[in-house]
Amino acid sequence: MSEKKDSFLVNRLKSVGWAFKGALILLRTEASIKIQFAIAILVTIAGFYFEISPTEWLFQVAMIGLVMSIEGLNTAIEFIADFIHPERHDKIGRIKDVAAGAVFIAAISAVIVAVIIYYPKLF
Ligand SMILES: Nc1ncnc2c1ncn2[C@@H]1O[C@H](COP(=O)(O)OP(=O)(O)OP(=O)(O)O)[C@@H](O)[C@H]1O
Hints:
The chain has one domain (31-122): Helix Hairpins, CATH 1.10.287.3610. The protein contains four helices and no strands. The protein has helices at residues 2-29, 31-49, 54-84, 90-122. The structure holds adenosine-5'-triphosphate. Residues 30, 32, 78, 88-89, 92-93, 96-97, 100 line the site of adenosine-5'-triphosphate. Its cofactor is Mg(2+). Substrate binds at residue 71.
């Protein structure tokens, strides 16, 4: 019984390790994620500088997580598309466009949240 529990825990820990490895691969290799990470650091500094409220922090952190995680999924979809069909194909292009569209929607939402939080503090 306890042996089963241990192996479950070890497996979960291994999964966390692989997920962490995946996040590092994204941050090291993907230009879009690097830019988003830099913006995340800048708005975090801005959050402390302007002393934004706990509710504003919640929205800001949620938006950073949303944009970067969807960007990660977009990258995974691009990898799958390139793996299963390395040549150019209209359908592969459409799959990649739709995945990029998801990032775009999240990014627009994040910009709107940023404007709502910081516009009154700046102007
Ligand atoms: N194999 C393909 N067949 C048809 N169109 C493609 C193909 N690969 C890419 N495209 C088109 O080019 C666009 C960009 O694709 P690509 O894989 O280069 O993504 P990217 O946006 O440059 O990647 P990144 O997220 O690294 O910036 C796609 O959205 C699609 O419109």
